[in-house]
């Protein structure tokens, strides 16, 4: 006597109650979600992140309505929507970085070999000190200065209170300033 595997709808409902029930649903749909993410985003790492984000979001109320389609179609729509959100954020970040780059005054090019070496050493010192920052402080600065996110967006991304992000940013910049001033 063989028992039928649980339906997608039953697995989705179970995952909302018990995250451990997510496994079979992940096995059924992870390749589809990852493939759609990769096609939309063009990055294997981002597709993996998106896949994880999608399945983690299933551990709670999902808004799935069986009358509107299958669980597979629901996951495809969710993947598409979140991939578009990521592309918009990426595009916005790129625009912010371009605007920041265009608005930033340019340092004059080093005129002598000594100035060139001094400039390279400064860059190396800043990078080395950035790498020595505690992980979350470094991440906050990277998101702000390299990804162009606001502190509110960083708080959302890190799932941390806004005040915490502001404190982390202030501490990191203060630490960098002290170390580089020496």
Tell me what the structure shows.
- By secondary structure, this protein is mainly α.
- The chain has 2 domains: 8-92, RNA polymerase sigma factor, region 2, helix turn helix motif (Rna Polymerase Sigma Factor, Chain: A), CATH 1.10.1740; 107-181, Arc Repressor Mutant, subunit A (Orthogonal Bundle).
- It is 75% helix and 0% strand.
- The protein has 8 helices and no strands.
- The protein has helices at residues 8-17, 22-41, 44-57, 71-103, 113-132, 135-145, 151-158, 162-181.
- Helix 2 (22-41) crosses helix 4, helix 6 packs across helix 8 (162-181) and helix 7 packs across helix 8.
- The N and C termini lie far apart (76 Å).
- 16% of the residues are buried.
- The mean pLDDT is 84.
Task: Describe this protein with a few key phrases.
Arc Repressor Mutant, subunit A; about 180 residues; 2 domains; mainly alpha; about 75% helix
Topology:
Blueprint: H1 8-17, H2 22-41, H3 44-57, H4 71-103, H5 113-132, H6 135-145, H7 151-158, H8 162-181
């Amino acid at each position: 006597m063989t028992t039928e595997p649980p339906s997608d709808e039953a697995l989705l409902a179970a995952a909302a109650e018990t995250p451990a029930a997510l496994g079979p649903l992940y096995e059924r749909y992870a390749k589809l979600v990852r493939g759609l993410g990769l096609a939309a985003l063009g990055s294997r790492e981002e597709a993996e992140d998106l896949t994880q984000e999608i399945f983690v979001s299933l551990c709670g109320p999902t808004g799935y309505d069986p009358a509107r389609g299958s669980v597979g179609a629901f996951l495809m729509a969710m993947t598409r929507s979140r991939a578009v959100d990521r592309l918009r954020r990426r595009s916005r970040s790129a625009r912010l970085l371009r605007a920041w780059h265009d608005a930033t005054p340019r340092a004059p090019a080093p005129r002598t070999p000594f100035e060139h070496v001094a400039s390279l050493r400064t860059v190396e010192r800043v990078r080395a000190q950035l790498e020595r920052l505690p992980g979350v402080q470094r991440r906050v600065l990277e998101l702000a200065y390299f990804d162009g996110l606001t502190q509110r967006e960083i708080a959302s991304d890190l799932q941390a209170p806004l005040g915490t992000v502001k404190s982390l940013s202030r501490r990191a910049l203060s630490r960098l300033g002290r170390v580089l001033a020496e």
